[in-house]
């Protein structure tokens, strides 16, 4: 959990810049400056500061999964036999190396982890589940939910 010292104080211009970049990170500096009502040098300086301060963690392209053959989303609950910190870290390291695992959360109460997995089809999910769950002696329970419709997908972080 970040401490108050880790949180950067953002003013209104910072928030406008972040909102615009979360919508479209491909904007040129001049386009961004016009949209946030700032001069291009000010905008460039602010974006550099936000990157340097790690407020902007990275800029990526968001793909349409169905266009690249990744059309099955699974939300998976994992319960471990042993929940000692080193066992949780081992499991996190295992799933971190798997590109199909889009997100991994330690959660409480309930299961120990919730994963969001994106694969081509059920056969690919079965192979991944065997590799990540069935062969791991510390995985006690796996409960999988399969998406039949993605009605909302968002990557933006609220900065109001």
Topology at a glance:
Elements: H1 12-23, H2 29-36, H3 40-52, E1 72-80, H4 85-96, E2 101-106, E3 113-119, H5 122-134, E4 139-146
Antiparallel strand pairs: 1-3, 1-4, 2-3
Helix pairs in contact: 1-2, 2-3
Task: Give an account of the 3D structure.
The protein is α+β, with helices and mostly antiparallel strands. It folds into two domains: 9-52, Winged helix-like DNA-binding domain superfamily/Winged helix DNA-binding domain (Arc Repressor Mutant, subunit A); 65-146, Lrp/AsnC effector binding domain/regulation of amino acid metabolism (RAM) domain (Alpha-Beta Plaits, 2-Layer Sandwich). Helices cover 36% and strands 19% of the residues. It has helices at residues 12-23, 29-36, 40-52, 85-96, 122-134, and strands at 72-80, 101-106, 113-119, 139-146. It has a four-stranded antiparallel β-sheet with strand order 2-3-1-4, covered by helices on one side. It is elongated, with a radius of gyration of 20 Å. It starts with 11 loop residues before the first helix and ends in a 14-residue tail after the last strand. The model has no long low-confidence stretch (mean pLDDT 95).
Tally of extended strands? 4
CATH architecture of the largest domain: 2-Layer Sandwich
The overall average pLDDT, rounded, is 95
Largest sheet: 4 strands, antiparallel
- Supply Rg: 20 Å
Query: What string, H for helix and E for strand, traces the elements in order?
Result: HHHEHEEHE
Strand order of the largest sheet: 2-3-1-4
Shape: elongated
Strand content: 15-25%
**CATH class category of the largest domain:** Alpha Beta
CATH topology of the largest domain: Alpha-Beta Plaits
CATH superfamily of the largest domain: Lrp/AsnC effector binding domain/regulation of amino acid metabolism (RAM) domain
Which blocks of ≥5 consecutive residues have pLDDT under 50?
A: none
Keywords: DNA-binding, Transcription, Transcription regulation
GO molecular function: sequence-specific DNA binding
Protein name: AsnC family transcriptional regulator
InterPro entries: ArsR-like_HTH (IPR011991), AsnC-type_HTH_dom (IPR000485), Dimeric_a/b-barrel (IPR011008), Tscrpt_reg_AsnC-like (IPR019888), Tscrpt_reg_AsnC/Lrp_C (IPR019887), WH-like_DNA-bd_sf (IPR036388), WH_DNA-bd_sf (IPR036390)
């Amino acid at each position: 959990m970040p401490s108050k010292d880790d949180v950067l104080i953002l003013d209104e211009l910072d928030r406008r810049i972040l909102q615009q970049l979360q919508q479209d990170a491909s904007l040129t500096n001049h386009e961004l400056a016009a949209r946030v009502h700032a001069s291009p040098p000010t905008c460039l300086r602010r974006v550099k500061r936000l990157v340097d301060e790690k407020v902007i963690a990275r800029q990526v392209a968001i793909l349409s999964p169905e266009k690249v053959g990744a059309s099955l989303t699974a939300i998976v609950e994992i319960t471990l036999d042993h929940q000692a910190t080193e066992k949780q870290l081992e499991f996190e390291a295992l799933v971190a190396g798997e590109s199909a695992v889009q997100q991994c959360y330690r959660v409480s109460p309930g299961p120990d982890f919730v994963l969001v997995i994106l694969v081509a089809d059920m056969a690919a999910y079965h192979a991944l589940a065997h590799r990540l769950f069935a062969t791991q002696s510390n995985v006690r329970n796996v409960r999988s939910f399969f998406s039949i419709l993605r009605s909302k997908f968002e990557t933006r972080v609220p900065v109001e």
